[in-house]
Structure formats: C-alpha cells, structure tokens
Amino acid sequence: MASEFPYYLSADFLAAVQVLVYIGGISVLIILVIMLTREVQRGSPSNKLQFPAFLVAILFLMVVAFALINTPWQVSTLPPLEPTTAALAGKLLGEGGFILSVEIAAFLLLAATLGAIVLVREK
C-alpha cells in the first residue's frame, strides 16, 4: 500500500524500486526460514492460542477494512508529470553513467542467490 504513494507523486521509478526491494527482502526471508527449518523432522505441536490468535487477526482485518472504507480519499486534479524513468535510466546507464557498478551489483546478487540455493539444497 505504501509503495503506491511514489507512483501517485509521478516518481514511477522509485515506486518500482521500492516494490523490487520488498520482493527481495521477502525472498531472503523465505530462504532464511527454509535454511533454519530444514532439519526439523516432526511437525510443531498444536498451539492452545490458535483460536484467540485467529479472532485477533479477524478483528484486525475488520479494523483495517473499516478504515479503508471510511477514509475520504483525495484524488489529485493536477495533470500527471512527465515520467522520470527514462531520464533516470539515461543518467545511470548512459554515457558517463554507472553501468559497471550496476553490473557488479547484479553479479553479487546473483552469486548470493546461487549460494543460498546451494546451502538449502539437500545433499
């Protein structure tokens, strides 16, 4: 929900980067959970607080839905600004830009992902 605000402010590149960072963080979290729980042979015992936790979750969802429905959303009447993606891409990846830095960062992320997969894979 918060990743929509840069898009509404005509910062579409920032919105896309924010979504990609969230996706990356969630992926790392999932890989970490898999790595930490792969040695578990039996399931977890049942929890006595499962039903109260379910009720609290439903109550929370109802409060969020109530807030979303009753909020007077303001729609901007201003015309949209020029997209900033092309200009920013030209500065980053164009002549005199940071193409080498971007490629090195991409290679490091690929190496980290492959390393995590090798660690998680069963032997």
Automatic annotation (TrEMBL):
It comes from marine sediment metagenome. The keyword Transmembrane helix applies. The chain crosses the membrane at residues 13-37, 49-69, 98-120. Pfam families: Oxidored_q3. GO terms for molecular function: NADH dehydrogenase (ubiquinone) activity. This is NADH-quinone oxidoreductase subunit J. Keywords: Membrane, Transmembrane, Transmembrane helix. Coiled coil: none annotated. The lineage of its organism: unclassified sequences, metagenomes, ecological metagenomes.
